[in-house]
Amino acid sequence: MANLLNQTLQRLEKHLQNLIEGSSARLFPTYDFQKELSNALVEAMQTEIRPTLDGSLLAPNLSRFFCL
């Protein structure tokens, strides 16, 4: 189960990376900022992973991101 969760998180990370480095590049012109933002999003999602009573891992399937 943990392997499936890791694969899902890796796919999500790749998707976010493509999103941040692709279409949002116009909003965030420097690569360092894009990379920092991508890493922060992945870290925020990983911190929400919780073990269930049966020992499997559960990650949220919905997240909200607010830009200030």
How does this structure look, described?
- With 68 residues, this protein is mostly helical.
- The protein has one domain.
- Helix content is 53%, strand content 6%.
- It has helices at residues 2-21, 31-46; strands at 50-51, 57-58.
- A two-stranded antiparallel ribbon has the order 1-2.
- A hairpin with a 5-residue loop joins strand 1 and strand 2.
- Helix 1 packs antiparallel against helix 2.
Concise description?
With 68 residues, the protein is mainly alpha-helical. The chain has helices at 2-21, 31-46; strands at residues 50-51, 57-58.
Using brief descriptors, characterize the structure shown.
single chain; 68 residues; mainly alpha; two-stranded antiparallel ribbon; 6% strand; elongated
Report helical residue fraction: 40-55%
Structural class: mainly alpha
- How far the N terminus sits from the C terminus, by CA atoms, comes to 36 Å
Regions with pLDDT < 50 over 5+ consecutive residues? none
Quote the average pLDDT. 77
The major β-sheet equals: 2 strands, antiparallel
Domains counted in the coordinates: how many? 1
SS summary, helix count: 2
Radius of gyration: 14 Å
Number of strands: 2
What's the order of the H and E elements?
Answer: HHEE
Question: Main sheet: which strands, in order across?
Answer: 1-2
Give the overall shape. elongated
The percentage of residues in β strands lies in: 5-15%
Question: Topology of this protein?
Answer:
Layout lengths: L1 H20 L9 H16 L3 E2 L5 E2 L10
Antiparallel strand pairs: 1-2
Helix pairs in contact: 1-2
